[in-house]
Amino acid sequence: MRNGLSKDLITRVLGGAPKYTLDELESKYPPRDLPEGAFVTRFAPSPTGYMHLGNLYSGLIDYKLAQQSNGVFLLRIEDTDTKREIKDAVNIVIDSLARFGIKNNNDISDYGPYYQSQRKDIYHSVAAHLLEKGLAYPCFLTQEEMDEIREKQKLAGLATGIYGEYARDRDICEEEIIKHLDNGEVPSIRLYSMGNPENRIYVKDFVRGSISVPENNEDIVLIKSTDRLPTYHFAHLCDDHFMRITHVVRGEEYFGTVALHVQMFRIMGWSLPNYIHTSTLDKIDEETGKQRKMSKRKDPENNVAFFLEQGWPTDAVIEYLGNILAPGYEEAKIKGQVKSFWDYELRPQKIPASGSLFDMKKLEWWAKEYIATLPVDVLVKHVVDWANEYGNEDNKKQVADVPYLTSVLAIERDNPKRIRKDFITWQQTLNEVSYFWDFLFVSNKEYEYNQDVLRSFLETWNEADDKDTWWGKVVSVAEKCGVKPGEAAMNLRVAMTGRTNTPDLYSIMHVLGDERVRERINKHI
Ligand code: GLU
Fold this sequence. Notes:
Blueprint: H1 7-14, H2 22-28, E1 40-43, H3 53-68, E2 72-75, H4 86-99, H5 120-132, E3 136-139, H6 143-155, H7 174-182, E4 188-191, E5 200-205, E6 209-214, E7 221-223, H8 232-242, E8 247-251, H9 258-268, E9 274-278, E10 281-284, E11 291-293, H10 304-309, H11 314-325, H12 329-334, E12 356-357, H13 360-372, H14 376-390, H15 393-398, H16 402-410, H17 426-432, H18 451-460, H19 467-481, H20 485-497, H21 505-512, H22 514-523
The structure holds glutamic acid.
């Protein structure tokens, strides 16, 4: 510890008097009144306008843990470090989460504001406390001076940073501080670290177990001189304490700072949140076949918007991410023990610590299974909504006549034993059934049609026939033309759809209707 600063000097150093005492903050944001075992979590993105899959993954953990324990899930915007347009970027986050079924409780939780840029009073009040107690100090090192220190440390093969003898202003006295301030300099506020890297501290991480890490000895910046806003570390301390967060879920890239964070919580005498450091999401590289981290540059699926634009069922994405998080989920679902991931208990200890693989092929399986469970009107609604928002002109035309679209998508959805599983995304669903629309129908010119079959079928076709009568006619047409019934049906199938593989032909012909059936047969005669 060093000597604490006087109140006046603290005000000058921070550029204004602190608004609250620690006691005032404690009573403004008291411990929450929640049932035993409730998790309070937060999703804390920096608003960049780009939400990556890893964000969704950790947001899902936050949300699920809060939801299943009747806790609270907050969205906190970490906007102290960005000069971009924040509003749109925040809307992208809120909207993307909502589309995946993730809703925050900010409006019912009195622990805001939830934008870090609006919490300056809180950070400054905590910083004032540390300055007063001699646990932090104003540092007037310039960028050039810090660069020089860095070079020196590098040459000597030492850890870089402001610590120990390199922390010039660690023991700066009041007179010197005043001199700098009178000179118009704005200091950063640094932690007065008393850690010794030769000692180790023990941290419990839900995913990684109990881990020991060397103590931190860096006098890290708490409040930046440039804008007097907090660094990530200091904001994490103040916000997660005063928002009464019980579980901090964040990417493994933050694990390296955990010693510092533990140190700060201890200095404040605050209880430590539980940490859950998740692993990054990997994929199998198409070229090398090897597992690697997803990349913003190379992998379109790294962007959450990709799934929305392509019309992946968001519920299926959640199901699959849920299964990555909770490896027993798939089995419980297949056994019928739970209906969706929302009903399955996520055990934080079971979240994988490394190498979580996100495989688009597996997602396809989840998507097919999911779409297969949808009643036709729900499927139609998804497809229509997607087409109107993201579809091309053709897609929009396809969904214009909803009753027709409904009859198209109803094919083979009434028999629970044989639900078709060829729909993967809303976009692909529309492509899959495109032949139902004349403007998209592509007649198959390669196929060698049996003209006799087409002609004789046309003579007997009657839209009013039931399925057995219709099939009886196909069989007699086949007999007459000396081919197998299957071959006769294939001729009709290809003439109707241009394809050799389709769902039930009788249903297709009835959805197409008398006029189109005749037209398409005639086209090939
Ligand atoms: N703003 C940080 C990020 O986007 C949040 C890390 C945390 O959750 O503490 O990665």
